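ingest -> fold -> write
write: protein_1
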Amino acid sequence: MRTITGFHCPGCGSQRALHQLFHLKFLSAFRLNPFMVLSLPIILYALGLRVYNYVNETQYRVWFFYNSWFIYGYFGIAVIYWVLRNLPYYPFYLLAPTE
């Protein structure tokens, strides 16, 4: 996306951040994509719940994953993050992935 539009997308730096997380370099991963790093606990919890339901043949659901306010709120935060990380002003340019 960066080469086409000149803007950082919300996912820019995610692959490099995951690489840093696998090497237990949490601060480096956070500098590359803080939104993804902060979203990982929610994603891992949802994935773990799916695995638990599959293994134990249950239908346990967490209520907030199925509410529209959670889905729209998460999408809204992603859009706000997308806009803020492309602003050329301090402290917003710190959200852009570092090289």
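write: protein_2
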Amino acid sequence: MNIYYAPPAQIHGTAAELLDQEARHASKVMRAREGDQLVIVDGKGGRYEGPIRRITKQSVQIEIQESQYFDKPQPELLLGMGIIKKRDRLEFAVEKAVELGAAHIALFRSRRTIKENVRMDRLESITLSAMKQSLRTWRPEVTLFHSIEEVIASFPEAQCVLAHEKVSPSKMSFAHLAEGKDQPILLMVGPEGGFADAEVDKMVDAGAELASLGSHRLRAETAVVALMSQFLS
């Protein structure tokens, strides 16, 4: 099943409109025709279905016959991730985080960050594609922060969990974190080389909980998948 994206501004009562790349994908790539049924999500919990009524050069117009609204998944998962040097690995981590339910991806620079420039437009495109591929109705935000402190300060209500290779593997239970479903969970993963000791100390002082992902060292993008998968529902 193909899912298409139209933000709330393109949903008008019983009509929805695909524009730009989404319209081209439907009409040119998938060769949709008038009368074909399409499924649309608005990235804010809305899911709509109905037939195509008109195709123009700029848009695909749909009559909404069925609509549903889905609440945000609970607990709300926020991923804080140190910027990974290699672009393909960074993009892989972002894609998998979306598929696994991240509501917000906070990229940050830290003491051991090597890469400086990040193509945010590419990451926005990846989050959109991953949202549709995984049949989700909420589109995650992607934000770039200049420090770990900025990340922590931006999510003051969240319970912070820090993946750290020096923590005993016995600390691998995450079940107790999901019990407080009204509280977001901020999952922190460092860049290549991990977190500096001073950064770990600051996060612990701010209330972060250290957690182990096993006895073996993981790449940053693998750690993202391992940590996020602890909260699959």
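write: annotation protein_2
The mean pLDDT is 90.
The longest strand covers residues 46-55.
pipeline exit 0
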